[in-house]
Amino acid sequence: MSVRLKLSDRHQNILRATIQHYIATAEPVGSKTLVEEYNFSVSSATVRNVLGRLEKAGLLYQPHTSSGRVPSDQGYRTYVDQLIVPDEKIGKKIEKSLNKELNWDSWSFEALLQRATQILANLSGYIALITLPQSSANRLRHLQLVQVSSKQLMLIMVTDSYQTQSVLIDNPLSVPEEQEDNQEGIEEELQILSNFLNSKLKGLSLAELATLDWSELDQEFTQYTNFLKKLLRELARNLQSSVTTPIIVHGVSEVLRQPEFSQLQQIQMLLHLLEEEQDQLLPLVFEISNPAVLIKRVRVKIGSENPLESMRPCALISATYNQGDLPIGSVGIIGPTRMLYENTIPLVESTADYLSDALS
Asked: To which protein family does this belong (predicted)?
């Protein structure tokens, strides 16, 4: 049972040094090491006494009775909330790398996110995650109808986060057999209809599409009433089917070299989560259901704070990226709880800020 402890400056300094030494070495930390390597100007007995108090408070523990101390999840939480100063230089470093490496003029948005995830993984040394934008949060940017046969059209949709989707629908244009060669006239009519759809639908969200009323149409388009109603159902269904957002993942091989993942079962559970259970991981990385969560710029979940068992040996740092004021995706890093938080937090924050600025 932990004892509540008000941390004095000495307590904070020794706790900070213990956690930093453990992060660097992955070895339990004893009082002798702290006295030799840190200038506390106190005796080994005093340091040992403080370590004992910190252990009773639940901030440290001894894996074995004869060993030094290691941080608990609560100790890491205190460290992150009270004792660290994020390294702003590394935030500027990844911003510079993203500006240099990403080609917004010719790459697709998914390709941009793939490369951004690789850069984040390389600079952090941990598993980097970036979610593709949530379709339910996206708005329609452009629509185009293209004839693929006399009986079918393809509706091509582009969202404001530059995702492209397409759906096949029945052709509403009745073309007599003797006019089947009149391709130019058909294309002109499809373009007029595409322009009309853009004027009516551009900028609408999925929720707004679902409630759109086609009962009052301009006179020239009344003949398309049934087609437009059917098209709207197909459009909403197609967008809804992609609401479960894929997560781009890089850096797995690097983090699995950490001693925390020496047990095969832990590796298998984490890999299964990343590869097969992204639907369970997504709510942890991209928390938009709770408005209070969005107030905090960067969110840090440490060890037992993660609800999934496969994430218990890990820390997860995440931040949303926005389209204007609307959060549409998230940037995250997964690593051991023995993570270099001073570097990882600004890496995640700067990457999310960069994507938000670029999308704006």
From this structure: Belongs to the HrcA family.
